[in-house]
UniProtKB/TrEMBL annotation:
Residues 186-301 form the Glycosyl transferase family domain. This is Glycosyltransferase. It comes from Kordia aestuariivivens. It comes from the Bacteria. The lineage of its organism: Bacteria, Pseudomonadati, Bacteroidota, Flavobacteriia, Flavobacteriales. Coiled coil: none annotated.
Length: 352
C-alpha cells in the first residue's frame, strides 16, 4: 500500500446517517465533533462523506468543508441493495476523480460491508469504527471483516472486550473527544438529577424512575429532568404518574445540543441507567459540565471522585443519596480525553 501524502490525501467516510445541515446539532454529535477536528487537522485533504440512509435528500451539500453525498436510502429494507449499488458506484466515481487513500466506515453494518469490498478490490486502506451494539450483537456484515486487513476501532475497554468476545476481532481503542468551545459557562444548580438519552429499552429509564421514587421519599423538593424522546414515552409517563412523581420529574423531550449543554451546566448529578453503552458521549459532556455521575458499569465507566459506578438499583440509590446529602462544592470541569490524542490516533491509522 502506498505511503500517504498528508497534504493531498482523499479520505471517504461511510455512515448510515449524518447531520442534514450545519444547523443540525443532534444527529450523532460525537461523529460531528470528530469530523470537524479531522477537517482542522488535515486542512488540505479532500474529505467526502457518503450518508447511506439519512438525510432524506439526494442533494449533495457542504458541511464544514466536507462534501456530503446523501444516498437517500430512507431506512427502507427494499431499497437496501439499490443503496449499496449506488454507494459502490459513487465510490468508483470518486476514486476515478481523485484516488481514495482511506475509507473510514462507521458501524459494523452496511457501510463496513460496502467499504471493505471496495477497499479490497482497489487496495485501499480501510478503517472501521465500531459504534454501539454492533460490537456485542452478531450480524452477517462482520464476516468479511474477519481475517481482513481492516483496522478496527472501538471506543472504550468495555467496547473492546465486547468486540473480542463476539467476533474474536482485535481493535484499537480510541475514545471520542469534546469540542470544549461548545460548552456554556458553569452555573448554579437548578436541577438536582438529570437524565439524557433516547427513551428506549437500552437506556432503561424504568430503573431511573424507580431510583427517583426511592430518593423522593426523603428529598421532598427534588428537581429531576429527562432530556430525550422515543418509543417508550407513554409508558414512562404512566410509570411517573403511578408513582406520584409528576411534580418531581419533568420530561423535556428532544432538545438542540446547545440547550442540552445549558441544562447540564445547571445540573448537579447525571443519573445514567443505560444497560449498554459502547462509549457514552454523555459521560464526557457531564463531567466537562461539572456534574457528578451515577451509572451502571457501561461504556467508559470508571469509578472516581466524580463518578459512582453501581451494579444495581440499590447501589445507584445509595450513590445519589450520598451525592444529594454531600456539601454542594464548587463545580469543576473534568476532561477525560483530549482532541489531540484522539485525532492523532486516527491519523496514525490513516497514514499506516
Amino acid at each position: 500500500m502506498k505511503k500517504l501524502n498528508k497534504n493531498n490525501q482523499h479520505i471517504v467516510f461511510l455512515t448510515p446517517g449524518f447531520a442534514e445541515s450545519e444547523e443540525d446539532s443532534t444527529t450523532i454529535p460525537a461523529l460531528q465533533v470528530f469530523l470537524k477536528s479531522i477537517r482542522k487537522a488535515l486542512p488540505n485533504a479532500k474529505l467526502t462523506l457518503l450518508a447511506f440512509q439519512f438525510p432524506f435528500t439526494k442533494k449533495t451539500y457542504d458541511w464544514h468543508g466536507i462534501e456530503v453525498i446523501p444516498l437517500n436510502g430512507q431506512n427502507r429494507r427494499l431499497k437496501k441493495l439499490q443503496t449499496w449499488r449506488k454507494a459502490t458506484k459513487t465510490l468508483k466515481k470518486l476514486h476515478k476523480t481523485q484516488n481514495i487513500d482511506t475509507i473510514h466506515s462507521f458501524w459494523i453494518g452496511e457501510c463496513s460491508k460496502v467499504g471493505q469490498r471496495f477497499a479490497e478490490k482497489h487496495s485501499i486502506n480501510h478503517v472501521v469504527t465500531v459504534m454501539g451494539q454492533d460490537a456485542s450483537i452478531e450480524n452477517s456484515h462482520a464476516k468479511n471483516l474477519i481475517h481482513s486487513n481492516a483496522k478496527m476501532v472501538t471506543l472504550s475497554k468495555n467496547h473492546h472486550a465486547a468486540l473480542l468476545k463476539t467476533y474474536n476481532l482485535e481493535s484499537t481503542i480510541i475514545p471520542w473527544h469534546l469540542d470544549v468551545a461548545e460548552f456554556p459557562e458553569l452555573q448554579e444548580n437548578a436541577i438536582d438529577i438529570l437524565g439524557v438519552g433516547s427513551l428506549n429499552t437500552v437506556k432503561n429509564y424504568s430503573d431511573f424512575i424507580e431510583i427517583i421514587s426511592a430518593l423522593a421519599k426523603k428529598h421532598k423538593n427534588l428537581n429531576v429532568a429527562i432530556i430525550g424522546d422515543g418509543a417508550l414515552q407513554n409508558e414512562l409517563e404512566i410509570q411517573i404518574q403511578n408513582l406520584g412523581l409528576e411534580n418531581t420529574i419533568t420530561l423535556l423531550g428532544k432538545l438542540p445540543r446547545t440547550e442540552v449543554l445549558k441544562k447540564m451546566a445547571q445540573s448537579r448529578i447525571l443519573l445514567h441507567t443505560s444497560s449498554y453503552e459502547s462509549f457514552g458521549f454523555v459521560f464526557l459532556e457531564a463531567l466537562y459540565s461539572g456534574m457528578q455521575i451515577a451509572s451502571y458499569d457501561v461504556g467508559l465507566a470508571k469509578a472516581s471522585k466524580n463518578w459512582h459506578v453501581g451494579e444495581s438499583e440499590i447501589e445507584l440509590i445509595e450513590a445519589c443519596e450520598s451525592l444529594l446529602s454531600a456539601q454542594n462544592d464548587a463545580k469543576k470541569r473534568v476532561e477525560l480525553s483530549s482532541e489531540k490524542q484522539s485525532i492523532n490516533a486516527y491519523l496514525n491509522l490513516y497514514h499506516a
